[in-house]
Amino acid sequence: AFKAAVLIQQWYRRHVARLEMRRRCTWRIFQSIEYACEQDQIKLHNFFSYLMDQFTPSSSKERDFISRMFISGESYKEAELEKYCDYESIEVPDSYSGPHLSFPLLPDHATALLEAFQQKQQLHARYVLNLLHETRKHLKQLPNISHVSTCYSEEVTVCGDLHGQLDDLFLIFYKNGLPSPSKSYVFNGDFVDRGKQSLEILVILFTFLLIYPKEVHLNRGNHEDHMVNLRYGFTKEVMQKYKVHGKKILKMFQNVFCWLPLATLIDQKVLIIHGGISDTTDLDMLEKIQRDKFISVLRLKKRKESSRKPEIQAINGESESGTDAAGNEAAPRLSLQPQSAQAPSTANRLEFSRWLRQTVQEQIDTCRRLVDISESEPEELTYSSMVSLKDMDEPCWTRQQEWKQILDVLWSDPMPQEGCRENKVRGGGCYFGPDVTEKFLEKYSLQFLIRSHECKQEGYEFCHNRKVLTIFSASNYYEIGSNRGAYVKLGPDLIPHFVQYQANKTAHMLTMTQRQGFPVALISRVEESAFRALREKLFAHTSALISAFKAYDRDNTGRITLSNWATAVESVLRLGLPWRMLRPQLVRSTEDGVLEYKSWLDDLAMEQRSQEHIQSSLLEVIYRNRSNLETIFRIIDRDHSGVISFEEFQQTWKLFSSHMNIELSDDGINDLVRSIDFNKDGNIDFNEFLEAFRLVKQ
C-alpha cells in the first residue's frame, strides 16, 4: 500500500509538472507574439518619421497635408479645439432612449451609465463630447504626480490594465464597490485598445472622476496614445460607434489623453506608475514636465534643426535645420540611385506593375536598413540611439530628457538581472534590475512600486525582493482561461491585499469544477489558441524560413535536422521561444530526427488556406503585412473617414517617391490612384487598398 501511494504521488507530481510546463510554454508564445507586434508598431512609426524628417514640401497643399499627417505639434489651440468639438451645436433627438447627462454630474448619472452599458446602449455623441470637455478642464488642474492618502478613506484600490474589457470593470465594482468618499480607486492606465468596449470604460471612469475628484485617480498608460490607438483598435472602435461625430470625439480623446497624470503617490510611500523606471528616472523632473506637450510618446523630433526652409518653420512653429551644432549635415539624404529612375508608361500595366514592384521594393529595403527595420540587423532602432544629445542646444536637450522620462515611465519592464538596459523586446523604454529599484526607492524614501503594463497569469506578481508589484486587471487577456485579473487594496499599513477573478462565465465554471478534469481541458484550449497564433506567424514568414532552411540544406535534399530547424526558425521569427520544446506541437512527424521542411511548410499553408481561399504565397504576404497595412491606411486617412481621398493618396505617394528617386508625373500618379479605385467612387477604402497590394504582389 505504501509503495502504491508513493507511485501515485510520483505520477501525480509528473502530471502536474507537465501541465505547468505546457502552461509556461503557452504563456511564452502569447507574450512573445504580443511584444513582437509592439516592436512592429514602433519600427513602422520610425520608418515614416525618417521619411518625414528628410521630406521638404514644395507647395502649400503639400505643407498642409504633411503638417496634418505627421507633425507632432498638431494639437488645436484652446479656442480652436472648443470650436471644433462644440457639443452644444449637436442636438439630441426625441427618439434617443439612452442615458442623459447634465453637469455637474451626480452619482445617479454614473449608475444610469452602468445600467445602460450593461444593456448595450450607447451614450449620445453630445454627452460624450460634453463629458470629455469637462474631464479635460479637470485634468488640466491636476499635477503630473497625484497624491493620495489613506487617512481620508479606509483603503485605496489599485487596478491595472483593462484594455477595453468592460466585464472586468463591472466585476471589480461588483466585488469591491463603486467609487465613493470612503472608497478610493487608482486606475493605472491602458484603459483602451484590444477589447471592444474601450469607449464605455473611459466614459465610466471619467464620470466617476468628475463626481469624486478626490477619490478617483487615473494614470496615463502607453496605450493612451493616438499613434498606438491607430493599430490596436480604439480609433476603429470610436469611428464605428460614432460615424457622424467620431472625428471630433477622437480629437478630444487625443487631447484628454495627454493631460492624464503620469503617476500616483500613496502616503508618500508607494509610487504607482504604468510601466516602470530607469536609472535616470527623476521624480522632480517628472513633476515639472509640461505633459500635454507629449501628445504621442512615440513622436519626438530626433535631431535639432536650426535653419531649414521657411515653410518648415511655419509648419513646426520652431527654428529647424538640417545641420548640427558644428554646421555639418545632421543626416544624409537617402542616396538611392535606381538603374532606371524614369517610370515606364502606365498604359502598359504589366510593365508598369513590374517596374513599380521592383523599384519600390529595392528602395523600401534601403530605407528599412537606414532606419534599422531590417530583420538581419542585430540592434533595434530606438529614439535615444538616433539623437546625439551632446550636439543639442539647451532647450532641445531638456526636451529630450523630458521625453525620455515619460517614455521610461510608460514603457519600461522589470528584469531579474542587475542594471538597466534598452528594452529591445518591446522596442521602447528600458529593462530595470533590482539594483535600480533599490536605489530609486532609497532616493525617494519609498517602500515599493506598483506598476502594470504586463499580463500576469495570476493577475499580479512580485519581483525585486517584493519591492515591485505588477497588477493586471484584464482577465482572459489572450484567450478564455489564459489568465486571471486582479486588483490590490492598500490600507493605512500599506500591506497589499489581492482579489483575483475571471470575468468570463465559461472560465469561471471551468475553475469551479476542477475535480472533473477541467484544468486539463482549459490548458488544452488556451494552448491550442497559442499554437494556432504561432502557426500563423510561421506561415507568414514562409519565404524567409525556406531561405533559412536551405542554408542548412547545402545538398538541397529538402531535409534538415530538428536542431537546425529550431535554430533556423528562431533566426527568422526572433521570438525567443524554446523551439525544441515546442517542436512536438508544431512538427507532427519526423524520420530519424530529420524534417522534410517543404512538406511541413505545405501543411502550414493548407491549414491557413482552409480558412481563406487565397493563393498560398499571396496569403503569406497578407498575413505578414496586414497589421502594418491597416496602420498605414489609418495614418494616411487622417480624417478617419474610413476612405482615402485621391489627394491624400497622391501626397503620400509624393512623400515616398521623393526619397526613392522615382520620377512619376502627376498624370502617372492619377492613373495609379484611379486603377486602385475599383468601384470608381472617387475614394479608396481599405478593401481596395488591400486588393491593390495583393495585385501588385501577384
From TrEMBL:
Name a single GO biological process: detection of stimulus involved in sensory perception
Molecular function, one GO term: calcium ion binding
**Known EC number(s)?**
3.1.3.16
Q: Which PROSITE patterns match?
A: EF_HAND_1, EF_HAND_2, IQ, SER_THR_PHOSPHATASE
The protein's enzyme class = hydrolase
| One Pfam match | EF-hand_7
Catalytically driven reaction(s):
O-phospho-L-threonyl-[protein] + H2O = L-threonyl-[protein] + phosphate; O-phospho-L-seryl-[protein] + H2O = L-seryl-[protein] + phosphate
State the CDD domains in the record.
Answer: EFh, MPP_RdgC
Domain EF-hand residues, every copy: 540-575, 624-659, 664-698
What are the names of the required cofactors? Mn(2+)
Q: What SMART domains does the annotation carry?
A: EFh (SM00054), PP2Ac (SM00156)
Q: Which UniProt keywords apply?
A: Calcium, Hydrolase, Manganese, Metal-binding, Repeat
**Keyword Transport belongs to the record:** no
Which domain of life, per UniProt? Answer: Eukaryota
Q: Where is this region: Disordered?
A: 308-344
Return the similarity comment. Belongs to the PPP phosphatase family.
Protein name as catalogued: Serine/threonine-protein phosphatase
Q: Which gene encodes it?
A: Ppef2
